[in-house]
Design goal:
Length: 184
């Protein structure tokens, strides 16, 4: 089961503190999602994350939405929002082996991302979550199961906790993405 840690969006110190918990909880990927930071600050943070993870090279470092910064800092990939850079354009710009992920909000979006060459998708919210309250209702396990029929790995996100992560795996998810699960 892939465990995908998303930074809490509260700055460098919060992310660096979360890394210790992420490592202890078996994270296989870390997504740097700090849109409030300048490009320079995000680059510095990516380098600091890489330095802190130097003893665990198996953990992949992904930058949210900024392909330019992911490439400039030698990260392992980029996570594109649903309405972000088109997948074919991103694929054209990256070297072989560079991971390109996409946020999706339906099984149809996952199938489209798979057709366009996405490496994996993060689908949600599966359950209600305080991280992104709003008018979008949770998708639920049935939609997760439909999405997991696509030809790419799907990670569940939204309200993922110890009590429900196994139900996501049973629905076919390759793992989960979370913020709160990895907070110290």
């Amino acid at each position: 089961m892939l465990r995908y840690c998303i930074s809490p969006g509260r700055g460098s110190e919060a992310l660096l503190a979360a890394l210790r918990t992420a490592k202890a909880r078996g994270a296989g990927m870390i997504q740097i999602r700090e849109p409030q930071l300048s490009a320079r600050e995000q680059c510095e943070l990516a380098r600091a994350v890489r330095e802190q993870l130097r003893d665990t090279p198996a953990i992949k470092i992904i930058i949210n939405d900024r392909l330019d910064l992911a490439l400039a800092t030698g990260c392992d990939g980029v996570h594109l929002p649903a309405a972000g850079l088109p997948m074919p354009r991103a694929r054209h710009l990256v070297p072989p082996g560079f991971l390109v992920a996409r946020s999706c909000h339906s099984a149809g979006e996952v199938r489209q991302a798979a057709r366009e060459g996405c490496d994996f998708c993060v689908l949600g919210p599966i359950f209600a979550t305080p991280s992104k309250p709003g008018p979008q209702p949770p998708l639920g396990l049935a939609e997760l199961e439909r999405a997991c029929a696509a030809a790419i790995p799907v990670l569940a996100i939204g309200g993922i906790e110890e009590t429900n992560m196994q139900s996501c795996i049973a629905a076919g998810a390759a793992g989960f993405a979370a913020i709160r699960y990895f907070l110290p």
